[in-house]
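2024-03-11 09:14:02 DEBUG pipeline.ingest accepted 1 chain
2024-03-11 09:14:02 DEBUG pipeline.ingest length=77
2024-03-11 09:14:03 DEBUG pipeline.predict start
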Amino acid sequence: MKRIATIGAVVTAFAVAPAVASAGNVTAQSKPQVKAQVVGVQIAKVQRAQAAISMQRHLVQVAQAKRFSLLFRAQGR
């Protein structure tokens, strides 16, 4: 029984020690912010890619509309 209690105390000490030790550590506190910035950059990249695709689709539609208008003008003559 003492052995189990001792092992439990050691495991608890090792589990609590990193949290207590990193409480004053600046790098440990800045990691979530860095992750948030990375996620924000990834989201921004996705949004730019989506905007580029939307712009490309728009330009294709404009080109098609121009072709159709030229086609209809040529048929009207």
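2024-03-11 09:14:41 DEBUG pipeline.report The first helix runs from residue 2 to 21.
2024-03-11 09:14:41 DEBUG pipeline.predict end
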